[in-house]
C-alpha cells in the first residue's frame, strides 16, 4: 500500500470513529433509565442513559465502552457490538449501521429478509424485457416470464446463475460467459462473502461449487473483489432461436442486502426479433430444444 493510500485509509477510519461516537451518543440519549428498569436517581444534566449504565447493561467494562464511544482506535468484537445494540434497542438498520461504523467486515444476523411483493409486480410489468432479482450468492429470487424463456435451464434446475455459469457446458449455457465475466462474478461473490464470513450457508455453497468446478475454485482462491457492473453487453445463448446479444442493466435494491435487479434489453433490431420469436413460443416449445440437446449430448453426465 502506497503512503497516499495509507493516509486515505487512516482518514477514512477516523471519519468512521467520529460517526460512531456521534451515533452512540445519540442512541444513548434517547433511552430513559425507567425504560431499562433503572431508578431515575439524582437529577441528570442530559437526557438518556449514562455511559456507565450502558456498560453495565451490556455486560462490558466502563472503560471499554467509553473508549468505544469516544471513537478510540480499538478492536471491538461482534459480541460487544451486539450487546450494546440490545441495550440501546437498535433496530435492524441501526444494528447494521453500528457494524459499519465500527469497521466490522460482517453484518449482524437479522433473520431472513422479506422480499417486497411489489418487486414481482415490477418484473412482470417489464413485459417483453427479461428481468430477475438476484441475491448475493446469485440466487434467482424472483423473475418474469421473459427471463424464464431466455434462461430455461437456470430456472428449471437450481435457480442460481453462478452455478449455471460454472457447471453447465458452454454449448448450452444460457449465459455464454467470457473469462472476464466469470472473474468479475466470483469477485463480487467474494465481496459479498466479506459481510457473511463464517456463515454456514455461504460456506456450504462455496464448498459445493468449488468441488463441482475447479475453475470456480481457482478464481475464488485469487481473493479478488468487485461490484456488479451497472450496464454491460452479453451474448445470451438460446437453443430455440440462437444467440441474442443483450444489454444487461443492474439496479440495486436498498431494502435487500447485496441484492439487485437485472434487466435484459436487446442490443439491436435482429436481437429484438429473436427475442420476440422466443416469447411467441409456448413454454414447452421454449424448453424442448434444451431438453433434446441435453438428452443427446449430456445424458451420461446428467
User: Which CATH C-level class of the largest domain is it?
Assistant: Alpha Beta
Assess the beta-strand content as a share of residues. Answer: 5-15%
* Rg over C-alpha atoms, rounded to the nearest angstrom: 25 Å
Query: What structural class do you assign from the helix and strand content?
Result: alpha+beta
Distance from N terminus to C terminus (CA atoms, Å) equals: 48 Å
Biggest sheet strand order reads 2-1-5-4-3
Q: In the CATH scheme, what's the topology name of the largest domain?
A: Beta-Lactamase
User: What coarse outline follows from CA principal-axis ratios?
Assistant: elongated
Q: Please give the domain count.
A: 2
What is the averaged pLDDT score? 87
GO molecular function: DNA binding
Protein name: Helix-turn-helix domain-containing protein
InterPro entries: Cro/C1-type_HTH (IPR001387), Lambda_DNA-bd_dom_sf (IPR010982), MLTR_LBD (IPR041413)
Domain HTH cro/C1-type: 23-95
Amino acid at each position: 500500500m502506497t503512503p497516499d493510500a495509507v493516509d486515505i485509509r487512516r482518514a477514512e477510519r477516523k471519519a468512521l470513529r467520529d460517526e460512531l461516537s456521534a451515533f452512540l451518543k445519540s442512541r444513548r440519549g434517547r433511552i430513559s433509565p425507567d425504560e431499562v428498569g433503572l431508578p431515575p436517581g439524582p437529577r441528570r444534566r442530559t437526557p438518556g442513559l449514562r455511559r456507565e449504565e450502558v456498560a453495565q447493561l451490556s455486560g462490558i467494562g466502563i472503560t471499554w465502552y467509553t473508549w468505544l464511544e469516544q471513537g478510540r482506535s480499538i478492536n471491538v468484537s461482534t459480541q460487544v457490538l451486539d450487546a450494546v445494540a440490545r441495550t440501546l434497542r437498535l433496530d435492524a438498520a441501526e444494528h447494521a449501521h453500528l457494524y459499519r461504523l465500527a469497521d466490522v467486515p460482517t453484518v449482524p444476523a437479522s433473520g431472513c429478509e422479506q422480499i417486497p411483493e411489489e418487486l414481482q409486480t415490477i418484473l412482470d410489468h417489464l413485459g417483453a424485457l427479461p428481468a430477475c432479482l438476484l441475491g448475493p450468492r446469485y440466487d434467482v429470487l424472483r423473475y418474469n416470464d421473459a427471463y424464464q424463456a431466455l434462461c430455461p435451464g437456470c430456472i428449471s434446475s437450481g435457480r442460481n446463475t453462478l452455478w449455471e455459469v460454472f457447471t453447465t457446458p458452454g454449448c448450452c449455457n444460457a449465459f455464454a460467459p467470457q473469462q472476464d465475466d466469470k472473474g468479475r462474478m466470483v469477485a463480487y461473490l467474494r465481496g459479498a462473502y466479506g459481510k457473511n464470513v463464517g456463515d454456514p450457508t455461504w460456506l456450504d455453497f462455496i464448498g459445493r461449487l468449488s468441488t463441482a468446478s475447479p475453475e470456480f475454485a481457482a478464481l475464488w482462491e485469487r481473493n479478488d473483489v468487485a461490484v456488479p457492473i451497472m450496464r454491460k453487453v452479453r451474448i445470451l445463448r438460446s437453443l430455440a432461436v440462437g444467440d441474442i446479444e443483450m444489454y444487461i442493466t443492474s439496479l440495486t435494491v436498498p431494502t435487500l442486502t447485496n441484492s439487485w435487479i437485472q434487466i435484459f434489453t436487446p442490443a439491436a433490431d435482429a436481437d429484438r426479433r429473436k427475442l420476440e420469436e422466443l416469447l411467441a413460443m409456448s413454454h414447452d416449445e421454449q424448453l424442448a430444444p434444451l431438453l433434446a440437446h441435453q438428452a443427446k449430448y449430456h445424458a451420461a453426465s446428467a
